[in-house]
Amino acid sequence: MTEPSNTPPAPEGAERITSAPDGAHLDFSRDMSYGDYLQLDKILSAQKPLSTDHNEMLFIVQHQATEVWMKLMLHELSAARERVKADDLSSCFKMLARVSRIMAQLIQAWDVLSTLTPSEYSQFRPALGRSSGFQSYQYRMIEFMLGNKNRVMTEPHRHRADIYAQVMAMLDAPSLYDEALRLLARRGIALDKSVIERDWSQPYAANDSVEAAWREVYADPTHHWDLYELGEEFIDVEDSFRQWRFRHVTTVERVIGFKRGTGGTSGVGYLKGMLDIVLFPELWRVRTSL
Predict the structure, then answer these.
(1) pTM of the predicted model, to two decimals?
(2) What is the rounded distance in angstroms from the CA atom of residue 285 to the CA atom of residue 127?
(3) Whole-number CA gyration radius for the chain
(4) Quick one: 155 exposed, middle or buried, by C-beta within 10 A (0-12, 13-18, 19+)?
(5) pLDDT by residue (tens digit) across 194-225?
């Protein structure tokens, strides 16, 4: 039986309308409504500015929306990794394509935040305290999933045992790329043992045997079609991820210049350093060596 709606009853004496164009259902006193299903009461009451400044709402909504998209991204990446482990690449391709589309949404979202001027941001910046996007545990888990492992980055989450456990689990597990390389080995393509049996919590280091493996795939895409497509899906994801990072840098520089970040980093300097990180190095190098 459908749970009754939590919507308060109509004001006493209000006339009930019983019909609507195209037969749309109007009475949700005993049925689940759109707002009930999406739990909009919780979502739309989560924006709680700590200052009286008008523009803080933009800042909060932008970052909350990003976190929701990142939740979906982690959902898709985790499922994609499981599909690679199961050698089910056809399902994996759709998931990775969706991740690239999610990142496209996040790239576009910077256009909205860039309407925030330096003087506007300075009005509510003190209310942020030491909080910073640097502390986003979902972003950290996405980076770990994509292979950018760094144990130091788990420390901001140690104060929350539940979150810390999730971040550490992602650090210690094979990344999506690690699982792809293990798949190449299962397919009989030669790889150094150190690539497929290692400490997964350590950052991945480019390896000549991996470049040779991808060269074999790319030199004969007809024979290795699903692996070839997997490589291209990875390139799409990293391409989108780079654009997301770049738009982050330019937006931050536009709003705060070269001030230090609220979380203590050098701000733009730190973010520019992140632009140099390559997630799937051999897939980029193979384009030169082919």
Answers:
(1) 0.91
(2) 45
(3) 23
(4) exposed
(5) 999 999 999 999 999 999 999 999 999 999 99
